[in-house]
Amino acid sequence: MADNVGYTPGVGATVAADEVGGALYQRMKIAVGADGVNDGDVSSANPLPTTQPLYATILDETNTPILYYGEAVIGSVTSDPVWRIRQMDITGTMTITTWAHGNANFDNVWDDRADPGEITYS
What we know:
It is a single chain. By secondary structure, this protein is mainly β. It has a domain at 55-112. Helices cover 0% and strands 36% of the residues. The protein has no helices and 7 strands. It has strands at residues 17-20, 23-26, 55-63, 66-73, 81-91, 94-99, 108-109. The strands form 2 sheets. Strands 3, 4, 5, 6 and 7 form a 5-stranded antiparallel beta sheet that branches. Strands 1-2 form a two-stranded antiparallel ribbon. A hairpin with a 7-residue loop joins strand 4 (66-73) and strand 5. The protein is elongated.
């Protein structure tokens, strides 16, 4: 049996719509489940499933009180520009966290983390 359903405007059931800027957009309910299976409508009791990526992590404590924490997709090489690196300055009772190149992008080389000529933190 085909998964598609035909619809002729003006005939049959009413379809919900929302008008935005003069155009009608069809409103839909999202249901979860594998093909051919309905595990129920998305709601606060049945939220939309999501997957959080898993990252490899490295913590470098060789220059305490300055620590470096890196994350990248599992299997990444430390010499590739695929790392998100933060620097943590743990002086006294405060911890100050800064990011490589001032952002949390996954575009840094872990091996360059402590080289001020390669990476600045802000």
